[in-house]
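Model it.
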Amino acid sequence: QVQLVESGGGSVQAGGSLRLSCAASGYSRSYYFMAWFRQAPGKEREAVAAIVSDGTTNYASSVKGRFTISKDNADNSLYLQMNSLKPEDTGMYYCAAARYSGYGSLQAKTYPYWGQGTQVTVSS
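Modeled.
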């Protein structure tokens, strides 16, 4: 059974940094896509960043240059280093994984596996 568990969320002031982690279990091979999504209150879930099994990364324009996604292929752990945080980065952050390619690395419908989320709050 595939399980994704996020950690590392918290409250920071604007300009601060956080590092999110996602521990994946239940699948012994490397996922084709892994990604971070976020959802703010009253808004739709949006893609933040994704990484393909070959190491290729893809970022939402709103976080490019500030966030870095990385992955440990040995244990399928996923990370998101978030720097220069802004109040608009506030939301629940979700880890997602897919064994196969689908509709694109930043498309939510590509991902059948999701974690429960970790809250990030950035104050001004």
